[in-house]
Amino acid sequence: MKKRKMRTQKIRWKMIISFIAFNLVCVTILAPFIVFWGPFEAIKVMAVGSIATSRHPQVVQLFLSEEKISEIMHTYDSAGASTGLNVETAQVMNDPSSGITIEDIKGQNFKGKVMLIKDPTRIKVAVTQEIGVAGERLSDFVKDTNAVAAINAGGFYDLNGKGNGAFPDGLTVHNGDIVHNNVDNNQVNLIALDKKGQLTIGDMSADQIAHNNILEAVTFGPNLVVNGQPVVSGDGGWGIAPRTGIGQKADGTIIFVVIDGRQPTWSIGATLRDMMNVFIEYDAVNAVNLDGGSSSEMVYNGKVMNKLWNVFGERYLPTAFVVLPK
Q1: Where are the domains of the chain?
Q2: Separation of alpha carbons 100 and 289, rounded Å
Q3: Using N-to-C axis directions, what is the helix angle for 2-37 and 41-52, rounded to 10°?
Q4: Residue 45 above 90 pLDDT?
Q5: pLDDT confidence of 37, banded at 50, 70, 90?
Q6: Which of 24, 60, 142, 172 could serve as a FRET partner for 213 with CA atoms 20 to 30 Å apart?
Q7: DSSP SS3 for 227
Q8: Per-residue pLDDT reduced to its tens digit, 140-180
Q9: Minimum mean pLDDT among 79-93, 102-116, 213-227, 310-324: which range?
């Protein structure tokens, strides 16, 4: 009798496990179709925008045509057509002796941090010490350069599918020298600082680096504010995601912005329009979008200031903007 009961319980557990496994398989198979074709507009826009602008856009291309992807990513263009500033700020840290101020920011769908650095000449580009082999964590960049703060900077390309931040994309400049170039002499959108700490954003080739007295630079985009004018059309067409950006005020103050995302109970993320609005709120004359997603991070005094989306912790990156001590 006891053996029969044990056998019955085993059969029951097997049935339960089989049922759970069957449902997990069904959910896994059906999930992409529910997300990409289902009735949940906000989820669809966020998912398509996040994946299509990531290192693996082919995932969404398996389920949707280029025309449909474009249509979804521009869903909220008309809604974001006006500037419509709606950003709340709250000071976190203001130490006059350090020349750095940090503030919390909050928008309709996002939360993040803004760091203001009074002296722009303190900003440098840090490049992974193992360029071509592996990137570094942002906290490692800070230690390597004896910096007090940092944000992630330019994008990277992936030769071997590892996504380990080994190869910075475009032009990368440090101390006036081009340390990496995978675009020959073609023009790319450069985020550059000259010897006076003036932030320049715009198309530039390798031959123009020395002529323009560029000291530090990385490649990414798109531009958000140029010569005091907002330049994002609609919501930007890049969906909603964690974001990082850099800008500069008329008095030279550098503005670092990091927005958390992909965390529904905390912060969904920002559109490019949202990022532009933040920089306008902080009186940026020039501002540009940097690499985002799981790269978005801010470090100050050895501490990660924002809430990382990556469950594995800090991502390995090719470059960072670091703030050196006064």
Answers
A1: 2-73, 88-323
A2: 21
A3: 80
A4: no
A5: low
A6: 142
A7: coil
A8: 999 999 999 999 999 998 776 667 899 999 999 999 999 99
A9: 79-93
Q: How many CB atoms lie within 10 A of CB 278?
A: 26
Residue with tokens 């992807």: 69
What is the DSSP code string of 36-100? Answer: HHSS-HHHHHHHHHHHHTSS-THHHHTTS-HHHHHHHHTTTTTTTSS-----EEEEEEEETTTTE
Residue 217, token pair as written in the block: 């630079």
Q: What residues does 117 pair with on adjacent strands? A: 100, 254
Name the DSSP class of 19: H
Angle at 240 between CA 42 and CA 309, to 5 degrees: 110
Tell me the residue length of the chain: 326
Give the Cα separation of 223 and 290 in Å (integer): 9
Pairing of strands 254-259, 214-219: unpaired
DSSP string, 139-187: HHHHHHHT-SEEEE---EE-SSS---S-EE-SEEEETTEEEEESSTT--
CB neighbours of residue 188 within 10 Å: 20
Instruction: For 299, list phi and psi in degrees, rounded to 5.
Output: -120, 140
Phi, psi angle pair for 305, to nearest 5°: -85, -25
Which two structure tokens, joined as six digits, stand for 220?
């990414």
**DSSP code of residue 293:** G
